TrEMBL record:
InterPro entries assigned to the protein according to its UniProt record, in alphabetical order: Ala_racemase_N (IPR001608), PLP-binding_barrel (IPR029066), PyrdxlP_homeostasis (IPR011078)
Claim: Ribonucleoprotein is one of the keywords in the record: no
Organism: Aquifex aeolicus
GO MF entry, a single one: pyridoxal phosphate binding
CDD domains named among the record's database cross-references: PLPDE_III_YBL036c_like
HAMAP family the record matches: PLP_homeostasis
Protein's recorded name: Pyridoxal phosphate homeostasis protein
Modification sites for N6-(pyridoxal phosphate)lysine: 40
Cofactors that this protein relies on: pyridoxal 5'-phosphate
Kinase listed as a keyword: no
UniProt keywords, alphabetically: Pyridoxal phosphate
Family label: Belongs to the pyridoxal phosphate-binding protein YggS/PROSC family.
Length: 235
């Protein structure tokens, strides 16, 4: 069932209100949280509605689907694209100069490919987040928490074009969002530790999705990736 424009507007308003309340509870300013629309399987027309309602940041999981939407929506002046899915090395060349932030950097081979393609395309700076598998789940991407420092060192040494902006995670799914809180706290603590270890500014924590984004904000999320709560269930 495709969503109607009215439903989308209502959903977006509800999400924004929830974000505001979570910020108040955490004693944070509303401007410290960026709402990203996670738009996998959603048609460009629906993204356009969201854009008209002031949502400017969109995240895609699949390169082919992203390229199609990028083409269809490139008339929108200040639209911002993030890549939030697992990124295969052979797809890097298609997105390197089209996205503002890549959320899913988790291995040296991907780092090498990003650096190589940035050099080829003349892209001076590529903003990235390092994805951490805080729940240790086999099925998910992300570097193990205890190996994150090693990957940071590798990026800083081998990939001058890459700018590490922070960390991202997809924690284990739990019915009760409160049960996910420790994972969000763990990512924040890891970020603070790495910032100190490498003397880096790491402003971004990309964590929290449709059912747990308010808890993520309370634990320090700066980017929440919200899909079904805005756009309805996936096809």
């Amino acid at each position: 069932m495709e969503i109607t424009k009215e439903e989308l507007i209502r959903n977006l308003q509800r999400v924004r209100e929830n974000i505001e309340k979570a910020c108040q509870r955490a004693g944070r300013s509303l401007s410290s949280v960026k709402l990203l629309g996670a738009t996998k399987t959603k048609p460009s027309a629906v993204l356009r509605w969201a854009y008209e309602e002031g949502l400017k940041v969109f995240g895609e999981n699949r390169v082919q689907e992203f390229l199609k939407k990028w083409e269809e929506l490139k008339d929108l002046p200040d639209i911002e694209w993030h890549f939030i899915g697992r990124l295969q090395s052979n797809k890097v060349k298609y997105i390197i100069d089209k996205v503002s932030l890549i959320h899913s950097v988790d291995r040296p081979s991907l780092v090498d490919e990003l650096q190589k393609r940035a050099t080829k395309k003349g892209v001076k700076e590529v903003d990235i987040l390092v994805e951490v598998n805080v729940g240790g789940e086999e099925t998910k991407g992300g570097v193990k928490p205890e190996e994150t420092s090693e990957l940071f060192g590798y990026i800083l040494k081998k990939a001058p074009a890459l700018r590490i902006k922070g960390l991202m995670t997809i924690p284990p799914y739990r019915e009760d969002p409160e049960e996910v809180r420790p994972y969000f706290a763990k990512l924040r603590e890891l970020r603070d530790k790495l910032a100190e270890e490498f003397n880096l500014e790491l402003p971004e924590l990309s964590m929290g999705m449709s059912h747990d984004y308010t808890v993520a904000i309370e634990e320090g999320a700066t980017i929440v990736r919200v899909g079904s709560a805005i756009f309805g269930e996936r096809e």
